[in-house]
Write a structure and sequence with these properties.
- There is one protein chain.
- The chain is of the alpha/beta class and 245 residues long.
- 31% of the residues lie in helices and 25% in strands.
- The protein has seven helices and ten strands.
- Strands 6-7-8-3-9-10 form a six-stranded mixed beta sheet, sandwiched between helices.
- Helix 2 packs across helix 3.
- The longest helix has 16 residues.
């Protein structure tokens, strides 16, 4: 497995993001630590993607601050330290898997040995010669993840990377996320699937742009007296058990 920098903290303070007339992120503050998998969970449209875009410096913010490794988000020195996976695959569909990986490896200045390593990490060893356009949606997402792993980033920002994947592959990818964190990376993973929450070291729950919880899975269940994270979420928002999901 790749070696990662030992310091990769993210500090978000009173962050506000407006999208048109909608307040997508409403005075959110938290810290993501190196060596942990932090889960950002909440329903679709709650502000997760806007928050993640702010972390990597591609989102205009109204106020507040985002600091990564002591530098403001988007700083040029952070460009090769952050691996970012968007919801839509961000690779060239007319190129093969290997062509994409070799291209981005050259951009980042990393060797072909790491191309083999990341291809194996996302279980695409047998699809290296396949054009991305011929792959399934889940396989395309894995190509984007492989690209994000190039260069051994100290911060991984993954926007719903397991959506549409089969249960076995989802389990394998969560294992990969924890191995990356064990190597010293800060891993931030978003999801709207509450049953993935217990796979995280720390949870950030969002609703309507606000952060409504920042705790470990065990701490969240204990503080709400809930049996699972979905029930805890419903308790926090004051919704009746068994309500709409």
């Amino acid at each position: 497995m790749m070696n990662y920098a030992t310091e990769a903290a993210v500090v978000v303070e009173e962050l506000v993001v407006d999208r048109g007339r909608t307040r997508a992120v409403d005075h959110v503050s938290f810290v993501a630590r190196a060596g942990e998998v932090t889960g950002l969970l909440g329903p679709s449209g709650c502000g997760k993607t806007s928050l993640m875009r702010a972390l990597v410096g591609v989102q205009v913010v109204a106020s507040g601050s985002v600091t990564v490794q002591g530098l403001p988000a988007g700083h040029r020195e952070l460009r090769d330290r952050i691996g970012y996976v968007t919801q839509a695959p961000s690779v060239y569909e007319d190129l093969t898997v290997d062509e994409n990986l070799r291209f981005f490896a050259q951009v980042l200045g990393v060797g072909d040995g790491q191309v083999d390593e990341v291809r194996q990490a996302v279980d695409l060893t047998e699809r290296g010669g396949s054009r991305v356009a011929e792959l399934s949606g889940g396989q395309r997402s894995r190509v984007s993840l492989a690209v994000a792993l190039l260069g051994s980033p100290s911060l991984l920002v993954l926007d719903e990377p397991t959506v549409g994947l089969d249960p076995v592959l989802r389990q394998e990818l969560w294992g990969l996320f924890h191995r990356l964190a064990a190597d010293g990376a800060a891993v931030l993973v978003s999801s709207h699937v509450m049953d993935e929450a217990e796979r995280c070291d720390r949870l950030l729950l969002m609703r309507e742009g606000k952060l409504i919880a920042d705790d470990t899975p065990g701490g969240l269940l204990g503080s709400t007296g809930s049996a699972d994270v979905e029930s805890a979420f419903l308790t926090l928002v004051g919704a009746p058990a068994g309500g709409a999901r």
